[in-house]
Amino acid sequence: MRSDQTAVPLSYTAPSAIGGVGVGSSVQAVGQSKAAGPLLVGATIAMGLMAGLFFAFDVSVMPGLAAGDDRTYVTAMQHINKSIENGLFGLVFVGAFAATGLAAWLLHKAGRRRAALWAAAATALYVVALIVTMGVNIPLNNELAAAGDPSQIHDFAAVRAKFADSWVPVNMLRTALCTGGLLALTRSLVLHGRAGR
User: Fold this and answer.
1) Using an 8 Å Cβ cutoff, are 116 and 107 in contact?
2) Which pLDDT tens digit goes with each residue over 44-56?
3) Which range (110-114, 125-129, 171-175) has the least confidence?
4) Distance (Å, whole) CA 150 – CA 89
5) Using H for helix, E for strand and C for coil, what is the string for 95-154?
């Protein structure tokens, strides 16, 4: 050893890895795991709100309207479809997807594989609900709006039948998909909580 070299005791050297996992990656995984928790909670709340909204249509709104006359049905649904286009609904509608998908990704990156799989399953179920909404429900809503002002509609029965015959059963499917997503997120939350103990 040359005189200008300083020996560094082995005990002063920071280990580059512990148990085969780099210190940096371990810290990163902990951070990802902590971030996943609040996202999972938010995703579960948003998914529950969407499931509850669709369920409310299944068990109260649509049966209630079905008991009325054709003009009332068409007029009420036109107003409902217009009213639901607001920022709060949009936040929950999109937020349920974004929070669930991001939580699944963070759980996977943090090594919480089982929790990540359940969150991923919830994401997949909600994606199907989005596809159904955009492929069936929204086009039907647009057709109902295109029927025009109720004062100008001549055949309310035909407009109602064209809308209700598809919209109602498809909404039941959305309820089932979001309820399944809610159950999957609940399971993911439980597994994430156990792993964090």
Assistant:
1) yes
2) 999 999 999 999 9
3) 110-114
4) 26
5) HHHHHHHHHHHHHHHCCCHHHHHHHHHHHHHHHHHHHHHHHHHHHHHHHHHHCCCHHHCC
Taking all residues of the chain, what is their mean pLDDT, rounded to a whole number?
88
- Predicted TM-score of the model (pTM): 0.82
pLDDT score, position 16:
44
Q: How far apart are CA 175 and CA 183, in angstroms?
A: 12
pLDDT of amino acid 37: 87
SS3 assignment for 39-52: HHHHHHHHHHHHHH
Q: Quickly count: other Cβ atoms within 10 Å of residue 63's Cβ.
A: 11
Whether the Cβ atoms of residue 97 and residue 127 lie closer than 8 Å to each other: yes
Distance from C-alpha of 175 to C-alpha of 172, rounded to nearest angstrom: 5
> Which amino acid belongs to residue 146?
A
Q: Check pLDDT > 80 for residue 32.
A: no
If we measure between CA atoms, which residue out of 189, 181, 87 comes closest to residue 126? 181
Token pair recorded at residue 63: 């049966």
> 41: which 2 tokens?
């909670």
What residues does 54 pair with on adjacent strands? none
Chain centroid to Cα 109, Å, comes to 20
